[in-house]
Amino acid sequence: MMRQAVHDATNVAGVRDIMSDQLAKVVPLPEIQIKAELVHEIIRLKRERNAIILGHNYMEPALYHTVPDHVGDSLGLARISAESEADIILFCGVKFMAETAKILNPTRTVLLPSLRAGCSLAAAITPEDIRKLREEFPGAPVVNYVNTYADVKGETDICCTSSNAVAVANHLFSQGNDQILFLPDQYLTANVAREIGIKVVVPKLLGGPGADAIEPGERALITWNGTCEVHELFSTDDISSVRKQFPDVVVLAHPECKEEVVDDADFSGSTSAMIKYVEEVDAPRYLLLTECSMGDNIIAANPHRDVLRLCSQRCPHMAEITLEDTLEALRKTQHEIELPAELIAGARASLDRMLEIGPGAMVGEDTE
Ligand code: 13P
Ligand code: SF4
Known about the structure:
By secondary structure, this protein is of the alpha/beta class. It folds into 3 domains: 2-117 and 319-332, NadA-like (Rossmann fold, 3-Layer(aba) Sandwich), CATH 3.40.50; 122-228 and 340-357, 3-Layer(aba) Sandwich (Rossmann fold), CATH 3.40.50.10800; 231-314, NadA-like (Rossmann fold), CATH 3.40.50. 43% of the residues lie in helices and 14% in strands. Helix 12 links the parallel strand 10 (249-253) and strand 11. Helix 1 (2-8) runs antiparallel to helix 2, helix 3 runs parallel beside helix 15 and helix 5 (74-83) packs parallel to helix 6 (95-104). 1,3-dihydroxyacetonephosphate (13P) is lined by residues 57, 73-75, 147, 161-162, 228, 254, 256, 270-271.
């Protein structure tokens, strides 16, 4: 395992040799020398400060394959952060993920390398929107995607991630709910509804028919208008043109992609579920419809796999997280996530309920 070998290396030359061996296909060699110095210093400081580094699957390869103690998807990293006993949790991901770590482990110092690492989904909904939706659909439970900020989680009954969205919806239906507010990603909601075989309804608040479109006792998901600025750009034309060039390609799409894209794909799942698929299911080649860095990470770890990715769509928020800023955050203990105690208490219940649904109900698992 490359990360362990990098952590065991005793000097910069050792780190550089491991990185050159394993990353040469995806990181240019002149960059490896510079990055090896940063990596060695981050690991030294991490030990000195009793810090743990968590890295989302979208981190660039020279970071992803070196400094994190754990890598994974939103759900896997949330679980790990809930159990960490380190003094500092340094989160190499975006702000809503670092906030989730803070909510789940409020006594720890949680740092984010760049406070500019936002998310178009998290920016798409406010606590006020949720209060209005509750008025429109009294009694309907509120599910929010974990890609939301702490104040929104404070208005939420239960969170979900791309790993467990279907399980969370089924759990609420099994408890006797007919309508569920399923927010804020319109495409994730549509993909969950499609999988369960129920309808999606646009609330009157957004100009839709609201409850008028639902028969008494009919099951439905009430949606919102948020989108992931990266995944919404993939199209069925992308799939058909790649299939024309490579008829044997297996297409994997994240559930934040449009319904018709997920429908055309061969597999849909969280970032970790996609990684697991490529590692475990033999195919002549794979097309990944997700943030491009993840394709690089898979290629570096699985040189025998032929992975295609469309790199014109990038997540600018994930790209904010660099080795340079990771080192600065550790050196200066900077960009700490601070949340008021009452907000943490309110938001915590929505995450605890999600984690209680349990691993048996999950679709994708973390990679370590
Ligand atoms: P995962 O939970 O699948 O890692 O997704 C997080 C995300 O932001 C995808 O765009
Ligand atoms: Fe948010 Fe999309 Fe970036 Fe994921 S890829 S962090 S959902 S903007």
